[in-house]
Amino acid sequence: MSILVYIEHAEGKVKKTSLEAVSFANALSAKTGEGDVVALALGTIGQDELAAVGKAGASKVLHASDDRLTAGVIQAHASAVAQAFEKVGAKTVVLAKSSLGDAVAARLAIKINAALVSNVVELPDTSAGYKVKRSIFTGKAFAETEVTTENKILAIKKNAVDLKADGSDAAVESFEVSLADSDFASKITATERATGEVLLPEADIVVSGGRGLKGPENWGMIEDLAKTLGAATGCSKPVSDIGWRPHHEHVGQTGVKVAPSLYIAIGISGAIQHLAGVNSSKCIVVINKDPEAPFFKAADYGIVGDAFEVVPKLNEALKAEL
Ligand code: FAD
Known about the structure:
Mean pLDDT: 95
Largest sheet: 7 strands, parallel
Number of domains: 2
Helix content: 25-40%
Bound molecules: flavin-adenine dinucleotide
Order of helices and strands: EEEHEHEHEHEEEEEEHEHEHEHEH
CATH topology of the largest domain: Rossmann fold
Low-confidence stretches: none
CATH superfamily of the largest domain: HUPs
Distance between the termini: 47 Å
Shape: globular
Number of strands: 16
């Protein structure tokens, strides 16, 4: 028996959220005795990168290298995961909670007759039954879900798991998937890479600006600070609505949900709809000239001051330090 983990990758790198899923599966296996952790990667990606998945706790990586699987073709991915599930004799699939993960997991649940629990934040309680704690209402509450099916799919919330990094390289094994035309009923015909060196959904550090920055001409200091920190840039919704910044930078309930180690919010008030997209961040720093700005209640560190004075000084100080 094994636990199967569905791996997502982009630009030749396994996503951190998938490594978290592997770490979760590793701890789950230690708890439930479900055997080794087998990861499944689909499409074109380097063997070294796949072997490194072992550091997070996988003993083996199955790799279906068919290039048609590189762009996340949902139906084909669901079919491939179902076939791997059969092959390794798993009862549990673990994956990262993400848009692709959600789409694949929903289809997979039908194929393998499994219960799907999404936004899982900790290992299940197996003392009486199988109870899974998950985050609901954009992180404001938790729910406990009892799973009664034999087959289970657990989608793990970003940053909910400590990343294991002390394992050894995994064996990478080629995996032949049998795919039908219907698996490619919908096709991705073009993809456009978002601007910026660091992609927002994956970023470990995000520097985000709001309406307090007065206009698009002032984003230079946000970009400079982001460059110093190796961060992605984000913004509040009105900023992208007015067209100061592109829509893919809009963070919040109706935009991108980020979970970086560090989120720096500059000139953003901290409305609940914005907080809904950032409340999984490990550390939040707020720079706002209004000491009563609601964002300070959610902040780990706050600087009350004018962004136009604080940000350039902060950037200079960091440049001297880093
Ligand atoms: P403001 O509310 O105008 O705040 C600007 C802040 O900048 C203020 O706190 C001010 O003190 C500060 N400031 C001004 N000048 C300076 C200066 N010189 N230096 C430092 N600070 C300064 N919003 C999102 O962001 N994401 C969402 O996903 C989202 N979804 C929504 C969904 C719905 C259904 C609705 C109704 C709203 C949604 N909103 C969302 C909008 C949200 O309610 C707020 O209106 C929005 O987040 C406010 O953006 P802001 O903080 O940039 O602007």
